[in-house]
Design a protein that fits this description.
The structure holds two protein chains of two kinds.
Chain A: E1 3-8, H1 17-28, E2 33-37, E3 44-45, H2 49-55, E4 62-68, H3 72-83
Antiparallel strand pairs in A: 1-4, 2-3, 2-4
Chain B: H1 9-12, E1 18-19, H2 27-40, H3 47-60, E2 64-66, E3 69-70, E4 73-75, E5 83-93, E6 103-111, H4 118-130, H5 133-141, H6 145-155
Parallel strand pairs in B: 1-5, 3-6, 4-6
Antiparallel strand pairs in B: 2-3, 5-6
Helix pairs in contact in B: 2-3
The chains are: A alpha+beta, B alpha/beta.
Chain lengths: 92, 157
């Protein structure tokens, strides 16, 4: 069964640059298939940097995350942490 | 979408910003090579400032987004209008991307400091286009600059 969340983007750069890199790395570090996209729009594979870059999501916008797999809950929590932490407080 | 920066491809990426010959080996050298295409068209007031901004962005995290694509980019006062440049590589340039694929299609984006979200719009539109196999295939196969422009015109919505 898949899990999902809607998260509002906090980093100033949006889902871009370092937050985007950390986001994609987190997806690849977990046993789950994750898709991401606008709340009402098409989802793209979250493990692909180019797909995540294609979303062009800015600060204050909402993202829908859908995860499926053994780590679904854990990966969503980690992604939510990355997306809701100001960039200067994000650990590498 | 209307009135997007990507609507006028000829303005954004004139033929002189397109290279169909092999760029130098190495990420930094390739970035400088692409920057020089934009410098030569008279759009860059301060080459070093533009280069510093591009390399600072790479320092944060690579712009190698996988699938053989690199998109170095920066917002800088050193350019006077949004500009895109393109080079392709047969051998591939190591961009340190997460999927370990060397970059064979490389785009450079420079937008003025006051350009707001222009650079993110160009970056996302370009990324969306480049996810399609046929778009990448056409860019690899293009025989002249106008074919590259035509591909981008059709693919970037």
């Amino acid at each position: 069964m898949s899990e999902e969340r809607i998260v509002e983007i906090v980093p100033e750069a949006g889902l871009h640059a370092r937050p985007a890199a950390l986001f994609v790395e987190a997806v690849n570090d977990h046993e789950a298939d994750v898709e991401v996209g606008p709340p009402e729009g098409d989802l793209v594979p979250a493990q692909s940097m180019i797909a995540v870059t294609s979303l062009g999501v800015g600060q204050g916008e909402e993202l829908r995350l859908v995860a499926d797999g053994a780590d679904a809950e854990a990966v969503l929590s980690e992604l939510e942490r990355i997306l809701t932490t100001p960039e200067d407080e994000l650990e590498a | 979408m209307t009135d997007q920066i990507t609507d006028d491809i000829d303005e954004l990426i004139p033929a002189s910003h397109i290279s169909l010959s092999e760029p130098p080996a190495g990420k930094e050298a390739t970035i400088e090579y692409l920057l020089d295409l934009v410098v030569e068209s008279g759009r860059v007031e301060d080459r070093q400032t533009a280069l510093d901004a591009l390399l600072a962005r790479e320092e944060e995290t690579t712009t190698g987004v996988g699938m053989g694509i690199g998109i170095p980019h920066a917002k800088t006062e050193a350019v006077n209008r949004p500009s895109l440049a393109f080079a392709r590589s047969e051998t591939g340039v190591d961009f340190g991307s997460m999927d370990d694929e060397p970059a064979t299609l490389i785009f450079l984006i420079l937008v003025p400091e006051e350009g707001g979200e222009d650079h993110l719009q160009i970056l996302s539109s370009l990324s969306r286009a480049l996810m399609h196999d046929d778009v990448r295939g056409r860019l690899h196969a293009a025989e002249d600059e106008s074919e590259v422009q035509a591909t981008l015109r059709e693919a970037i919505a």
